């Protein structure tokens, strides 16, 4: 299930005439709803699936982007293609790749393990539509992490497993608040002062931009010059 109420999480409910079946929609319901949006608005034919962007370069002469895409369909050879566009919007997010923790001894662990993004129903039992994890009834389960995914999956694991251990790097606790405002807090509080001091330091913006440029270079993305951006009609 999602960790946000369905009425907020699912877009275009009025346009689609859809009423979520639960307060917190399941993954299978979210996917079916997303597919229905794509069908209604004819998005399937305009999408390039199973592909990655290899490079994106600004062409100063033609004032457009040249993007090289590699299609990686499962079981087939890679196909490289190029296209040009006036605008490029990066909306892939930061959670598209599963990240496994680097734990000493994990490589010699003899039990079964998997990432929540690659859930193994053949081992736990159940399915996306019916997540009854009956095969865990006699199992001791260790769960690493206490993020949003834990909110979604831990209740089910606690219900179906024999024993459940949750491993967290550190316990969460409120940090002291800055005296003034408090200091440009990242998430303003409409009720009271935010209980966090993890705010942007004075040089934070400059460091963020430097890191952003470094990531773009690693990804093979060349941005238009500042002079070009200033001349843009936008």
TrEMBL record:
One Pfam family here: FMO-like
Assigned keywords, A-Z: FAD, Flavoprotein, NADP, Oxidoreductase
Domain of life: Eukaryota
MF terms in GO: flavin adenine dinucleotide binding; N,N-dimethylaniline monooxygenase activity; NADP binding
Keyword Acyltransferase: no
Region (Disordered): 208-234
Cofactor entry: FAD
Keyword DNA-binding: no
Signal peptide: none
Family: Belongs to the FAD-binding monooxygenase family.
Protein name per UniProt: FAD/NAD(P)-binding domain-containing protein
Organism of origin: Friedmanniomyces endolithicus
